[in-house]
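Handout, section 3.2

Students often ask what a structure token actually looks like in practice. Rather than define it abstractly, here is a full record for 2-hydroxyacid dehydrogenase. The first block is the sequence as you would receive it.
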Amino acid sequence: MPPVKSELCIEKGGMMNKITMLQNPSVIRRVFTSSALERLSAMAGELAVPSEPLGETPEAAEHFIRNADVVITSWASPALSQNLLDLAPNLKLVLHAAGSVKPIITDALWERRIPVISAASVLSRGVAETALGLTIMTLKNVWEVTAQTRAGNWWNNRADEVREHIREMYGVTIGVIGAGQAGRHYMELLRHFRVNILLYDPTVSVQEAAALGAQSVSLEQLMESSDVVMVLAPEIPQTYHMINEERLFMMKDDAVLINLARGSLVDEDALGKRLESGKLKVILDVTEPEPPPADHWLRKHPNVMLTGHIAGAVNNGLLSIGDFTVDELQRFYAGERLIGEIDPTRLHMLA
């Protein structure tokens, strides 16, 4: 076993369950408040919290997971291999205090039918709220207006090309690509406005789309008709470069493309060709590769805004993940429905 200099191990009499936080201390500090850790401690007979990084070798993880009843993972946690699981024969629940569970999932875990919980719904809510903010901002033509105000211009009662490009959340068409958790919450937020919502998601029926307040359409119809195209689909083989040259050239000249999903969904070479017209506006929170090189054309194009992968939780928002994780554990112990439980049959469709 590699040196594990110290660990916080809280034991309480009369309680036999062991909760292991299989995460590096730096991640724990970013995701869990002291009050969240206190709540965990109150539910544990033993709460094992590493005070040193787990390291690159498996032995440190083996040390912490031994005899655990509940394991909490997050970013940079090891995959729950057969070897690790054998050390925790009474493991009843895995709580992933992050988004995608794919880095920690193994066949051995599914074979044991252990419930796996993801905090993706918390991150998705932040993405949806960012999506709404960017939608309003870009329709208002904020980036062009603010650039022009530096030259002394103003638009309260002024008629010119800049003002003509200002639009409100009324009567416009918003195209949503992907009805995952982020897409659904975004559409829920859009229902507070008088806008038309188009949805492309081949896994959602016409009736389900209507219940979400949207009209189910083909991707081509969405690209042709939308004033704002919001990309929120998962990164899976079927979505690779789904925003290709043909579909980009279907978009209106005054439309806006916003990608808050993954960079691989947009063909950036094709995007460059489409932007040669100088009309389309683009906001990319993600790129391919990420980040783009310092001299990449995306960083310099006047019609492109790069937001540096901030759509989800960044600073204080990360703490909501810890609270959600503790809430889910409380629901588990109370025998209540778990909000973030992963359906293994749908894992291939998840980001």
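Discussion prompt for tutorial groups: The radius of gyration is 23 Å. How would you have guessed this from the sequence alone?
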